[in-house]
Amino acid sequence: MEIPIRGIVGTYYSRFGGNVGTNLAFPACAQGQFQCADGSKCIARTLFQNGNVDCPDGSDEECTTSQFACKCGAVRCVAEKFVMDGNWDCEDGSDEFIENE
């Protein structure tokens, strides 16, 4: 029996091109909880966007205006001083290969 995907996990996978198939099912979080985008855990809703990363993938926090948001899927924020410094801080190296928009 599969437990339906709900909330941010379904949004995450459709937004970032993941395949939400029959072999991908995460348990739904209890009321008052937020499910991390990678499905690894549920955190209290009060921890969502509180300035501290509580999900292993960082999906409970948004990047600030002084941070670079990695393009690799899950929210990962890199301080501006580490962007274009010759070192990959994002899994996909997107902090080193900035496209002109």
UniProtKB/TrEMBL annotation:
Membrane topology, record value: Single-pass membrane protein
Keyword list, A-Z: Disulfide bond, Membrane, Repeat, Transmembrane, Transmembrane helix
Stored SUPFAM superfamilies: LDL receptor-like module
Pfam family, one: Ldl_recept_a
Domain of life of the source: Eukaryota
InterPro entries: LDL_receptor-like_sf (IPR036055), LDLR (IPR050685), LDrepeatLR_classA_rpt (IPR002172)
GO (cellular component) term, any one: plasma membrane
Protein's GO biological process: vesicle-mediated transport
Compartments, as annotated in UniProt: Membrane
Record's protein name: Low-density lipoprotein receptor domain class A
Source organism: Caenorhabditis japonica
